Amino acid sequence: MYRLAAIFPVLAFCFVLHHCLAFQQIRATTSQCNNLHNNRRCVFPHSAALPHNSNAPLPEGEHDTYLDSVSISSDSKDEQSSLSSRRDMLRRSLIGSTLIATTSMQNLNNNRANALDRGSTLGKMPFLMSSEDEKEVKGMPVPSKKLGGLSNKIRAVSKVMDELQRDLMQERWDLVEEYPNQLRSYVPVFTAYTDSAFPTDIPTDKGLRVALRYEVGRFFASLERFRQATNRKAIDEAYIAYSDMSLHFDRYLRVGGLYTFYDDNVTLEPYYAGNENSLVYADPKKDPALVRDLIVLIQGPEKGKTGIVIGLYMDGSDACAVKLDRTKGIREIRVVPRSWAAKRLGEQDPDDVFLLPRSG
């Protein structure tokens, strides 16, 4: 709207300039006609009607008449030339102003179109980018910038999940039972971010809100299963519920444009072609990885990445949930076949969640 308001004075100036040009042209034409009417002198000498030698002198009676005629003709031509020059200059100004106004309108329309496209698609993912007050992250969704710190509050859940992983793997049930209520307190934050990050009615924003609400619903459904498992102190069920919570929260961060980076590598397998010995691991068939084991992915598009097993699915899928090592503050969650996750051999640093200090 502000840009439209800025263009209106330009259009008004063009309109006034056009009318001024027309008025000046009429006035100049009228003045020229009056001058010719008042002088009433013949533009052509009488001898001009007869064939004669151009080098021959004019008759004496026609000499003065001819000079006056040439003078009038020259003045008229000078006036016409001056008028034409002014008219051309004004016309050029008018055309230039019109082009400026047209270009401004086209830029405004392009900007409006880009604003719609920017919040738009998940593949080349035109709507993907960064969150508020950050540099653009290529490939990530573009949430609204008027979020009032909601992005940081959502990311703060990552730390809570890390602390929960630490206490759960150490089976500190007295501490674990406090986490469901703590995470429940974030419901208004999730709701506010979902509605504020993609607030428009364009189809992509609507689709993103649906996707975010789905992930939030699955996250809190898994949280309820986690609560029930911890009440029974069923460690395997708690691990699975925690894995599902982590997976849906990770998807929420990704769809919501809250990732701090975007990895556009399709697969890492070609980097290890002919260099398999660079990965040192136990045979996953003879010594499969269990929860809490540090692993390296030995197959799949993320071959070579390291992490920790956080859950084993007992639904017959023979899959496990892996929490990858931290990258730019983010720990991605992957569900992979157990044959892809091999235990790392040799001395390893502990997972970084075990290095977190306990609050209080």
What does this 3D model show about the protein?
The chain has 360 residues and is of the alpha+beta class. It has eight helices and five strands; from the N terminus they run ααααααααβββββ. It has helices spanning 2-39, 60-118, 150-169, 173-176, 179-184, 187-197, 203-232, 235-255, and strands at residues 294-297, 306-312, 319-324, 333-337, 341-343. It has a five-stranded antiparallel beta sheet with strand order 4-3-2-1-5. A hairpin with an 8-residue loop joins strand 3 (319-324) and strand 4. Helix 6 runs antiparallel to helix 7 and helix 7 packs antiparallel against helix 8 (235-255). The longest helix is centred in the first third of the chain and has 59 residues, at 60-118. It is globular. The protein starts with a helix and ends in a 17-residue tail after the last strand.
